[in-house]
Amino acid sequence: MDYIEVSITLNPFRPFNEIVVAQLGEMPFDSFTEDEDDSMVKAYILEDDYAAADVQNAFDQFAGLVEISFTAAKIEKVNWNQQWEDNFDAVEVGDFCYVRAPFHPEKPNFLHKIIIEPKMSFGTGHHQTTQMMIELMESIDFKGKSVLDMGSGTGILAILAKKMNAEKVDGIDVEEWAFENMKENFERNNTAVSAFYGGEEVISSIGGQYDVIIANINKNILLSQFETYNAHLKKGGLLLLSGFYVTDADDLIAAEELARFTVIDKLEKETWCGLKLQKNG
Questions:
Q1: Strand blocks (E) in the chain
Q2: Sign of CA dihedral 212, 213, 215, 219
């Protein structure tokens, strides 16, 4: 079956390139490439799955924030592995963590090394929010702790928590392809992490309390799930949040649901923000 190549032009390119990829990732697109020089993202989808109206509807929510246009053309089958390899670089977070794909060379002198094959899942380590979460995790003593990674995606943060000697780590994602991908990455990194398919309701079905909850999700979902996080986080436990803009941080901190928490750390990368909060005793 042939593919449709959707070429999306953005002005400004950043941070909307990441937002567009995340948005289209919720549709059955198989792969993405980026060309910052041309301010363009290209997305690929099977011809039978493509609907121009769906793409346009996805972009309409950005009206007034970014100049965005797209064209679509049918192409012959693409070597997706080569496309992906050409556009995925290894990620280094100081000397603390090195994230690479299976085809990247190994590197010494990193405290933690993670191998990720993201496929369609969000969380390769490239996005600013994922990098901030890794930085926020660096200062935490995970030894013997129980950890929940909500919206785990590729599983990168769950894997890192386990490598940092967490005793119990659960990864949850509502997308089936992300669930399958994180299971593969847990096995690839020889980490004993439990993978769960579903949303907020899964937290209650698992039961128990966590020492650390990690959630790299958008602002609206975070606000809707705060009560569940609070119910399953131990007193004095840590809540790590990202996936939202710097301009949204004050709204989150001021939310009634966060009145029980104290902000311990706040990071900013470009337009994105990450928070480390502690549940009051």
A1: 3-11, 29-35, 40-46, 67-75, 91-93, 97-100, 112-115, 146-150, 168-173, 194-197, 210-216, 233-245, 261-269, 272-279
A2: negative
Percentages of the chain per state (helix, strand, coil), in multiples of 5: 35, 35, 35
What SS3 class is residue 180?
helix
Last residue of a domain, one of 19, 54, 80: 80
Give per-residue pLDDT as tens, 86-138.
Answer: 556 778 899 999 998 888 888 999 999 999 876 654 445 556 788 899 999 99
Indicate whether 89 belongs to any domain: no
Rounded CA separation 137/114 (Å): 14
Does the CA dihedral 165-258-197-3 come out positive or negative? negative
**Count of structural domains, the chain:** 2
- Is 96 inside a domain boundary? no
Predicted pLDDT at 184: 93
CA angle 157, 151, 217 (to 5 degrees): 100
Tokens of 278: 């502690």
Task: Tell whether 44 is covered by a domain.
Answer: yes
pLDDT lower than 70: segments of the chain: 1, 76-88, 118-127
Do both 42 and 135 map to the same domain?
Answer: no
pTM for the model stands at 0.72
In a domain, 99, yes or no: no
Range of the domain at 260: 121-279
Is the same domain home to 76 and 197? no
